[in-house]
From TrEMBL:
Enzyme class: transferase
Entry annotated with the keyword Nucleotide-binding: no
Keywords: Transferase
Native organism: Corynebacterium lipophiloflavum (strain ATCC 700352 / DSM 44291 / CCUG 37336 / JCM 10383 / DMMZ 1944)
Stated name of the protein: Phytoene/squalene synthetase
Highest taxon of the lineage: Bacteria
Length: 283
């Protein structure tokens, strides 16, 4: 009995560590997760923490050993659900959620394949871009759906619609972040993700094309929000609304400014947009 209580206390500590990861790295996503039901919130935050560690490995934190560290971390992440205890709090939290939500190993592998591209690829053709976005963002959406339905199962037809919406929302999130991080990605990391750019600077015509693509993704995602279990619907609606707001801000920002400045939604506006989305989601 004592060991069970001790392990429960350790589980809680690890969940809190994972929650700090998302709070440190993503204010918009962290805000949206507050509106998830407690169990779902824990699982989504634990998923995000694992993803964030991998992202840090490839974004320069790990230095020259990045490839070896990424390979080792992928091996650890894939094996983690088979063990009940891990000395790494993030890995421990991830493993608990992976078991509870039955996260797909194929999705995890696709994610790490995209992370690996960041170590040796600086530009993308359209097919490579689609593959990168699938692995780096769409599969995260698919794993979030697994968390949403873990205790609220849905029919197969509904799950297919939820998965389609999740992929669209993940794609939109990633493309918005690419546009926000143009200068950081190119100047500090040597990467240009959008095939339309290559070595070119972004101009207003290309920006308009990219914004139209993001809006199409968001519209596709919105069609599935009403199907999401109540424990997660408001949070997803809030996240979609926040990134829609960012998209409109990007649209209103000259391309030349976007190329040098990372834009964000002011905090007071975030709160307003979030509250409005939550009301709409639960009408």
């Amino acid at each position: 009995m004592e060991s069970s209580r001790t392990l429960s206390r350790y589980d809680l500590m690890c969940d809190r560590v994972a929650a700090q990861v998302i709070a440190q790295y993503s204010t918009s996503f962290s805000l949206a997760t507050r509106f998830l039901a407690p169990r779902v919130r824990t699982d989504v935050r634990n998923l995000y923490a694992m993803v964030r560690i991998a992202d840090e490995i490839v974004d320069g934190t790990a230095g020259a050993d990045a490839a070896q560290l990424l390979d080792a971390y992928e091996t650890q992440v894939l094996a983690a659900p088979a063990a009940r205890f891990h000395t790494d709090p993030v890995l421990h939290a991830w493993a608990n959620s992976a078991r509870r939500c039955d996260f797909s190993a194929e999705h995890v592998t696709a994610f790490f394949a995209s992370m690996r591209r960041d170590l040796n690829q600086s530009t993308y053709n359209p097919a490579e871009f689609d593959a990168y976005v699938y692995g780096s963002a769409e599969v995260i959406g698919l794993m979030c759906v697994s968390a949403f339905v873990a205790e609220e199962p849905v029919p197969a037809s509904t799950r297919a619609e939820l998965d389609d919406g999740a992929r669209a929302l993940g794609s939109a999130f990633q493309k918005v972040n690419f546009l926000r991080d143009l200068a950081e990605d190119r100047e500090n990391l040597g990467r240009t993700y959008f095939p339309q750019l290559g070595e070119r600077e972004i101009d207003d015509a290309v920006k308009a094309e990219l914004v139209a693509d993001i809006r199409a993704d968001l519209a596709r995602a919105r069609r599935a929000i009403g199907l999401i279990p109540g424990s997660a619907r408001g949070a997803v609606a809030a996240a979609e609304a926040l990134f829609s707001e960012l998209t409109e801000l990007i649209d209103a920002t000259p391309a030349a400014t976007l190329a040098t400045t990372r834009i964000s939604v002011p905090r007071h506006r975030k709160l307003y947009v979030t509250a409005k989305a939550l009301r709409r989601a639960h009408v």
